[in-house]
Amino acid sequence: MAETIGFIGLGNMGEPIAANLIEAGYRLKVYNRTASKATALVQKGAVQAKAPAEVAEPGGVVLTMLSDDHAVEEVSCAAGSFVGITGFMQRRDGRGIALRFALWPEVQGQGLAREAAGAALRFGHDRAGLSRIVAIARASNIASRTVLGGIGMVEAESFARRGEQMLLYESPRR
User: Fold this and answer.
1) Is the pTM of this model over 0.85?
2) Residue that is last in its domain, among 34, 62, 82
3) Phi-psi region of 173 (alpha: psi -120 to 50; beta: other; left: phi over 0)
4) What CATH number corresponds to the domain at position 7?
5) pLDDT by residue (tens digit) across 85-140?
């Protein structure tokens, strides 16, 4: 495999995951706030970045395994170029693997959510081989609903969560 993956966060969970990616043949560019935690991975072939922004390659994948919201904020603010997050998670309610995205307020309204969510959706279907991807939006969240419809997801279900009407969108593999 020739793809380079950026990886931020080499603690108790991040380091073994990153090591497995190297074993699977991926090239890794890694960053950790405590630089010495990257030593073992560098010995296995990873490239160590001096700053979080250095792990990102245009159009590439960056994985983060950080301990809490404070760590996410610290790393993303230090980077100066991260504008939000996009990724997948297995929903605890059994509805499937969900596409999730959020942008920092200062970059909202620039079309970046649609671009990031669309790229993640394509990656999920085409590269990760996911047969069905879902996304959840509040019925009142017109911006997210517009993004989900704009990337080809269709409304499939409605349910209530904590008194709010929620909409499930899905994208079966084409």
Assistant:
1) no
2) 82
3) beta
4) 3.40.50.720
5) 788 889 989 999 999 988 878 778 888 888 889 988 988 898 888 999 999 999 99
